[in-house]
Amino acid sequence: MKKKLSLFLLSSFIFVGCSSLGVKPWEREILSRKHMQFNADPIDSAFDDHIYFSKEASSGGRGFAGGGCGCN
Questions:
Q1: Which of 2, 22, 24, 66 lies at a CB distance of 3.0 to 4.6 Å from 72, suitable for a disulfide?
Q2: What residues have CB less than 8 Å from 57, skipping those under 6 apart?
Q3: Residue 53 in contact with residue 59, Cβ under 8 Å?
């Protein structure tokens, strides 16, 4: 009986914990601001890209497989 009760409580806590996932309509304004964007500063993003491409000895973007050594 205690096992069933503890299993029920544990599963209910897990389901309740996942019930608030997602962005609410009133939170979208805050998340769409410029300083909340992934690439908010284009100069900083360009500097990071320069370091990444210099270390990888490649160019073209992060979406391609393989590195600068010619391996895929």
A1: 66
A2: 67, 68, 69
A3: yes
Model confidence band, residue 48 (pLDDT cutoffs 50, 70, 90): confident
pLDDT digits (tens, 9 = 90+) for 9-46: 888 877 776 666 777 888 888 777 877 777 777 888 88
15's tokens: 């389901």
Q: Both tokens of residue 38?
A: 């992934």
Annotate the chain with three-state secondary structure: CHHHHHHHHHHHHHHHHCCCCCCCHHHHHHHCCHHHCCCCCHHHHHHHHHHHHHHHCCCCCCCCCCCCCCCC
